[in-house]
Amino acid sequence: MTKPFIQDLVNDMTLDEKLAQLTQLGPYYWGLDDTVDLTGPFKELNIKPQVMENIGSVLNGIGARNVIELQTRHLESSRQKIPLLFMADVIHGYRTILPIPLAMGSSFDLEAIERFAEIAARESAAAGIHVTFSPMTDLVRDPRWGRVMETSGEDPYLNARVTESMVRGYQGTDLKEPGRIAACVKHFAGYGAPEGGREYNTVDMSTGVLREFYLPAYKAAVDAGVAMVMAAFNTIDRIPASGNSKLLRGILREEWGFDGVTIADFNSVNELVPHGAAQDGREAAHKSLAAGLDIEMMSTHYLNHGAALVEEGLLDISLIDEAVTRVLELKDALGLFDNPFKDADPVADEADKPSAEHLQAARELGASSVVLLKNENEVLPLKRGMKLGLAGPFATSIHVLGGWAGAEKDPAVSLYTGITGKIPAADIVTAMTGELGSMLEGVFDVEDHAEEAFEQLKDCDVILAAVGENQHDTGEGGSKASLRLSANQEKLIRRLKDTGKPVVTIVFSGRPLELAPVLDASDALVQAWFLGSESGNSIADVLFGDYNPSGRLSMSFPYSVGQIPVYYNAYQTGRPYDPQYPNVRYVTRYLDIPNDPLFCFGYGLSYSSFAYSSFNVEAAADGRVLASIEVENTSEVTGKETVQLYIRDVTASVVRPVKELKGFKQVTLAAHEKQIITFEITSEMLMFYGQDDELVFEPGDFDIMIGRNSGDHATQRIWIS
Ligand code: GLC
């Protein structure tokens, strides 16, 4: 029910004022960036300066002082004193930078992820931000796409749980609460599936696949009460999302009941024109407004053409009034009409560093996001007192925050610094630590490695090879056709192995890389992602066993880029490959590489060892179906295990994945401790989208699987009707 004062405001607004309220511009249009001639952008965007007084929201105008100044000036000039909404990309932290979301997904630690979002909200709110363009929850299957770093991976269930945790952490239960900000889930929908993994490329999939894999996490955000939804750049069924009524009105509002604000992506209304879905800006504005897209970001077709569309009877004013009402309701939910500055606090915002409490949370979530992929002869954990070699472009680098690193005010802890927190610098020998350039700079390798450097390392007990990709070669606009480490980095690892010393390869990346070429030369292999502010400390905690690695991959690591898309929850096909008969030709296979990824979804090692036994699936007396298994820590080291539940619907009216994650439980077991883990198999877990895009349940055989990852589990078949 719309509050009377909001209804009155809308009724009092002129059409131009309404259209300005539905427009979002960057801060330099207000002259905040004095390097920009204020008349320049106006001319480009054809904005009359007096219109600026009624613009509704600001993109990335962050910094408490900026926000206070801009809000103050705005309210002085605004006829109706409607406060500005400040929005920004706080993707994995603002001052305290936490692990990239793909790493956070690998922690499977939903409580820690919710705590991350609370921290990010507190710091962002102090900087004057009201809305964050997070969670980004686009399901991904193609690591060639640079933005896989921003999402929690390839699984609908995990993405949904991570997304709702983030929404809760950002928003709490009342947006007016100090330290809370509105969340904006993105990019609706399917942006994570560009053909070829090429940024902004065509997305094309059946509605069944869209609903089964790509939509669940956005719906989880809506069900968790997300305040805003951002439309994607891409087309869905040949219609750009920003002008797609079936998507924005049909699914989002009518089917899911979303009544919050929708916003374009950067210039995405205007991009209906190059898409070929609109003749010009006027038609783009018409289609987007008709489709239910409330705010136009960084283009001004609503402003320039909206009034004519209404006056010519092409657009009903009620559509515009609805959109304006939703925007004003969000401002009211944030308390901005009473306190237009909300939590903007220059003192807190300009603190010389993040709080120790926040940094500790980042360190812990970083450690639990690290995935141990190989540990031959238990070369890890490292022992204090040993002499350690440290080589490679990430050995001493502080450029490990990852993309979208919030305020980017504070350097990260390097691996070297983290290790000096464990052992004396005198016990560390560094060599060949020249950093990587980025592909955009054209130098994305390190220099070839001088022989003498190896002399320095040969007396070490263990050598760490810190390798990876430049963080600027990930994120938006960061698509790559090759996923291998650079030639000189692969060569470095092989040369280090030639020393005869154990080699621990530590990979810094924003995506799964192609690590098969260095697997044999690595006695241990650690996926360190980009872990943010506390990166070096988090990794050192794992390397020295102060944190027993518990990360489990949130995305498959391909054996070869030629396999892509490779993901665990695939359809079986009519000619499945059977590894018992490796030479059969006419089955789904390659002649030159395996079908399976190098490391599968859910995979990760521990310093503990866990045994699974007594797997049982039964229909309980009360009709529930229960699946249970005993997990025992057979080692001397306390460890955390993520017990995973997968289900397969063996036969149905449409083909179904060979398995789907339907639950997971994290359990910490002391040495030789055992525990029975039980899951209830609910009807919701067994439902799927049938041929008519309706959620259905069909009785039949189901394979129930519980295990340590998507490739290693017990299985029992049961008939469920
Ligand atoms: C970018 C991104 C989107 C971001 C927006 C505002 O192009 O696609 O994720 O939130 O613009 O910066």
Automatic annotation (TrEMBL):
Every Fibronectin type III-like domain range: 641-710
EC assignment: 3.2.1.21
Catalytic activity: Hydrolysis of terminal, non-reducing beta-D-glucosyl residues with release of beta-D-glucose
Entry keyword annotation includes Membrane: no
Keywords, comma-separated and alphabetical: Glycosidase, Hydrolase, Signal
GO MF assignments: beta-glucosidase activity
Keyword Cell inner membrane on entry: no
SUPFAM superfamilies: (Trans)glycosidases (SSF51445), Beta-D-glucan exohydrolase, C-terminal domain (SSF52279)
InterPro entries: Cellulose_Degrad_GH3, Fn3-like, GH, Glyco_hydro_3_C, Glyco_hydro_3_C_sf, Glyco_hydro_3_N, Glyco_hydro_3_N_sf, Ig-like_fold
Pfam families noted in UniProt: Fn3-like (PF14310), Glyco_hydro_3 (PF00933), Glyco_hydro_3_C (PF01915)
Family: Belongs to the glycosyl hydrolase 3 family.
PANTHER family: LYSOSOMAL BETA GLUCOSIDASE (PTHR30620:SF16), PERIPLASMIC BETA-GLUCOSIDASE-RELATED (PTHR30620)
Protein's recorded name: beta-glucosidase
